[in-house]
């Protein structure tokens, strides 16, 4: 599939033309993108939300990995019936959280058939390298 970008230089007005299909703007693509943001720090959650919503991305933010699993419909390690309202394109999670860490969340998600293909980004706002390694 060949893709060609065009536009007047404004990031929000770029157009992607796919050979053999309709032309869609980047904004149209991002509006259907839904991110689950997981962070125990309210300020960090708000920063993620604001950055992504600036680009028209839909964001659901939760305060813990346990809450993320609930939103994803996971009950005792198994995915419940798939809820289309909460179909996520990507999960962004903090690494250092009380209880279940972002890495623990990633491991749990990769064990669940309906969730293992969702891309996961693990990040940390901590500036203590030995805690993040």
Description of the molecule:
Residues 34-133 form the Response regulatory domain. By secondary structure, this protein is an alpha/beta fold. The chain folds into two domains: 1-30, no CATH class; 32-132, Rossmann fold (3-Layer(aba) Sandwich), CATH 3.40.50. Helices cover 29% and strands 26% of the residues. The chain is built from five helices and nine strands; from the N terminus they run βββαβαβαβββαβα. It has helices spanning 26-31, 42-54, 65-71, 102-110, 129-132, and strands at 3-6, 15-18, 23-25, 34-38, 58-62, 74-75, 78-79, 90-94, 120-123. It has a four-stranded parallel sheet with strand order 5-4-8-9, sandwiched between helices. A hairpin with a 2-residue loop joins β6 (74-75) and β7. The longest helix has 13 residues, at 42-54. The model is unreliable at 1-7, 11-16 and 18-22 (pLDDT under 50).
């Amino acid at each position: 599939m060949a893709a060609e970008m065009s536009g007047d230089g404004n990031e929000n007005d770029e157009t992607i033309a796919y050979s053999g299909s309709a032309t869609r703007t980047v904004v149209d693509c991002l509006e259907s993108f839904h991110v689950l943001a997981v962070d125990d720090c309210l300020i960090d959650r708000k920063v993620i939300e604001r950055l992504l919503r600036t680009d028209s991305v839909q964001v659901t933010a939760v305060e813990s990995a346990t809450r993320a699993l609930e939103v994803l419909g996971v009950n005792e390690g198994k995915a419940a019936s798939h809820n289309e309202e909460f179909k996520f394109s990507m999960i962004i999670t903090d690494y250092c959280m009380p209880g279940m860490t972002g890495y623990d969340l990633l491991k749990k998600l990769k064990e669940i058939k309906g969730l293992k293909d969702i891309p996961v980004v693990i990040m940390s706002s901590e500036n203590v390298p030995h805690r993040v390694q």
